[in-house]
Amino acid sequence: MKSRLGYFFGGFLVFFAGMVAWLAINTATSTMEGMQRVKMPGRAEITLPLGPSALYAEGADHVQCNAVGLPLRATTDDVRYSLAGYHGRKVYDADVATGGRYELECTGEKPFAIAIGAGVGAWGVIAWLSLIPAGIGVGLAVATYARRRRRISPIASGSKQTPPITPANSSGTRASS
């Protein structure tokens, strides 16, 4: 019996990668649905936790925002998302020294929303990176198939093919026609 471990490990890697991608997409969707959103242009009160936060523009390309008592930095990251019915891009970063309520004022070309949260881009990267073990798993299964096919093939091994023994003729000789 030729080894089938390559199929097992290849299948396991594909299954594992699928589970990681599923988890990443579900977590990203949950993160997006749970983000605080405010309609803009205009003013709105937002609540921010202590630590880093990101502001995402949904429905507008060019926006200008200011927050009273909170410095906003234009982002250098090119983080965009389109998932669960939300489409946006990261426009500002904020390091919140004191969690609490802040007054946010934004201007823009047309009505849009500002979504506030963090970690949206990381889950997308994890989902894409899960393609690596999936590719390795498929490659391992294909290599195992090719290796097993080469070993089993009588032409590849150089042996002559013997006629099959039929149940009616179990003596090992060929049946006469």
How are the elements arranged and paired?
Elements: H1 5-33, E1 36-40, E2 42-48, E3 51-58, E4 63-67, E5 73-74, E6 80-83, E7 86-96, E8 100-108, E9 112-117, H2 120-129, H3 131-152, H4 154-157
Antiparallel strand pairs: 1-9, 2-8, 3-7, 3-9, 4-8, 5-7, 6-7
Helix pairs in contact: 1-2, 1-3
Percent helix? 25-40%
Mean pLDDT: 80
Structural class: alpha+beta
Question: Helix count?
Answer: 4
| Whole-angstrom Rg | 30 Å
Commentary on this structure:
The chain is of the alpha+beta class and 177 residues long. The chain has a domain at 36-118: Sandwich (Immunoglobulin-like), CATH 2.60.40. It has helices at 5-33, 120-129, 131-152, 154-157; strands at 36-40, 42-48, 51-58, 63-67, 73-74, 80-83, 86-96, 100-108, 112-117. The strands form 2 sheets. Strands 1, 3, 5, 6, 7 and 9 form a 6-stranded antiparallel beta sheet that branches. It has a 3-stranded antiparallel beta sheet with strand order 2-8-4, with no helix packed on it. β6 (80-83) and β7 (86-96) form a beta hairpin. α1 (5-33) packs antiparallel against α2 (120-129) and α1 (5-33) runs antiparallel to α3 (131-152). The longest helix is centred in the first third of the chain and has 29 residues, at 5-33.
